[in-house]
# Entry
Amino acid sequence: MQDKNSNPPKLFSAANSDSNLSKTPLPAIIVFSFNSEILEKFLLNFITIPSNISNVDLEKIITKTKVSKIGRINELSSKLNLINEDEKVKEYADSLFLGPKYKYTDEEVENIAKKYNGTIKKAFLPEDAVKLILKGNIVTLFQGSCENGPRALGNRSVLFDPRTEDGKAYVNSVKRREYFRPFAGTILHEYADEWFDMRGLKESPHMMYAMYCNKGYQEKIPAIVHVDGTCRIQTLKKEQNPVFYEMIEEFNTQTGVPILFNTSFNLGGEPLVESLDDAVKALNTSRLEYLYCPENDLLIEVLNEKT
# Structure
């Protein structure tokens, strides 16, 4: 936590420093101007809401990014008002599933699976995917249009059990990332305030904030809690992603934990998968083995040697 008497860190410039936030009358307007390299290396990891801004209307925060790499950072915003160069406020985007729309027939799915030595399980439902997760498996999820930006929001996701003690190191190894890098979690919206100190934020549907765990909950989800006691979360309502919601709901029924470990469906140094071919290829070239395609009620399995 930055000392309240110190100047704002050099990695961003802000209209109000932390020292002023707690004194700012509502509504507070904060404008950040980020450099894309810093965002990629640090800020996209998570933004922690400081403990001294609980009285600030977070829905009135404005962010504006300086993007130099197309496809890396399209938008740094959760439930924020975005502003154009002409100073006109854009309407809040309710969904970030802005990628191309895909609709695969069962035959097309089976052909892609065969291409990468995969097998198909039919009549596969959300509760079946949860059973795999409860057995200690990583399950990837592919459905609908891809997410705009760097966050996995349930359409191109890698899912795991957040209760696993060494889960962070294990999934980092499978994804070929540095062992220390933290992961995020998706929580059912109605449980967010119980599990996390939301600092007055009503929701975090785009996974852009790290929240401190409430007392007694951190030890329940060690795989997704960072060393500073925070977890970057996505809050999820049923209407935002029905299948993903159903999976977490089932996981909660089985475990009492309304959260799934959720990280982007990609391997280290590679972009998020876009097409189904990309997704199955990722299984074929890694230790990932299971791909759930809820739109076809199918599971693609590519068995790999465990190393």
